[in-house]
Amino acid sequence: MKTVPLALAAAFFAASIAAHAQGGPNDAQIAAIVVTANQVDIDAGKLAESKATHKDVKAFGKMMVTDHTGVNKSAKDLVKKLGVKPEDNPTAESLKKGGQENVAHLKTLKGDAFDKAYIDHEVVYHQQVIDAMDNTLIPSAHNAELKALLVKVRPAFVAHLDHAKKLQSEYGK
Amino acid sequence: MTRGRIAWVLALALALGSDPGSVAAFPTKVGSDPLFVPQASAAQSSRPRSQTHVVTIDGFAFKPPVVTVKAGDTIEWRNDDPVPHTATSTSGGFDSGSIAAGATYRWVARKPGRFDYLCTFHTIMKGTVVVE
Ligand SMILES: [Cu+2]
């Protein structure tokens, strides 16, 4: 029963990858971008959870870990269900590199400077992910379930951006 | 007993003969579920004593954002998102605490009033329960 839809999904993705070879990211690449984007913010959140000074900032870091772990689980579950193997690509690579640099930079900071730098980056990061979703990921997503997942989790990034901006107005000065 | 019940079911089936859907469904239900008849008559007379209203938490929003209920009704929040949320009244009444992904929270609305609520994790998520 299960092998037929999986085989169809595999064939479907093979076709969609070929179709998008010259254009935007294919679904396997989008999967890698989504998983990387979440992981990057989980890593930064873990650091903030332990290093932030203000309790609101600490709590925000903890929420980023919780929410992005949840979003990532739903993304990974879908990818598994569809039989897609996330495919590395320049967008995912640059997200990963940016995340590593951010964490490395944050580790050199203490006190209010840490909180400010963390929150400033969270604002920029969430805005970038929303822009990427709107301009590239959602329009490029070929599989209907993958597209639906992106649409469903987009509000998470909007809520986080709004929250980060509020914290920025309090602690970012 | 058995003969009397069969005769009664047949009589009902004949009485409802004008509605083809009822003929098929009605006798079966009477035979297997003795509570069917009282339920049917209650539905005809008035609204059931208390109802459950479902609010779905989906895409970081309470859907529908406003629910109007009668005192004694239950509101059930179902978290369809992959992340935890809360349904927390800002004017007392209810506070779900963390509702995990896929979990539900139920609150019985005892007293009339207007309850504005939000998700304490994501405060842009807002809703209202009006208890009449
Ligand atoms: Cu929430």
Describe the structure.
The complex is a heterodimer of chains A (173) and B (132). Chain A is mainly α. Chain A has a single domain, classed as Ferritin (Up-down Bundle), CATH 1.20.1260. Chain A is built from six helices and no strands. In chain A, helix 2 runs antiparallel to helix 3 (55-82), helix 3 runs antiparallel to helix 6 and helix 5 (111-140) runs antiparallel to helix 6. The longest helix of chain A has 30 residues, at 111-140. The relative contact order of chain A is 0.16. The model of chain A is unreliable at 1-21 (pLDDT under 50). With 132 residues, chain B is α/β, with parallel strands linked by helices. Chain B folds into two domains: 2-45, no CATH class; 52-131, Sandwich (Immunoglobulin-like). In chain B, the strands form two sheets. A four-stranded mixed sheet of chain B has the order 2-1-4-6, with no helix packed on it. In chain B, helix 1 (2-15) packs antiparallel against helix 2. Chain B is globular, with a radius of gyration of 21 Å. The N and C termini of chain B lie far apart (47 Å). The chains are: A mainly alpha (173), B alpha/beta (132). The A-B interface holds A 63, 66-67, 70-71, 73-74, 151-156, 158-160, 162-163 and B 58-61, 81-84, 101, 121-125. Bound molecules: copper (II) ion (CU).
Output the CATH topology of chain A. Answer: Ferritin
**Mind summarizing the main beta sheet of chain A?**
none
CATH level-1 class of chain A = Mainly Alpha
Rg of chain B is 21 Å
Mean pLDDT of chain A: 87
**Largest interface: which pair?**
A-B, 18 and 14 residues
Give the CATH topology of the largest domain in chain B. Answer: Immunoglobulin-like
Distance between the termini of chain A: 59 Å
- Counted up, domains of chain A total 1
Low-confidence stretches of chain B: 1-44
* Helicity of chain B, as a percent range: 25-40%
CATH superfamily placement of chain A: Ferritin, core subunit, four-helix bundle
SSE series of chain A: HHHHHH
- Supply the number of structural domains of chain B: 2
Number of strands of chain B: 8
The DSSP helix count of chain B reads 3
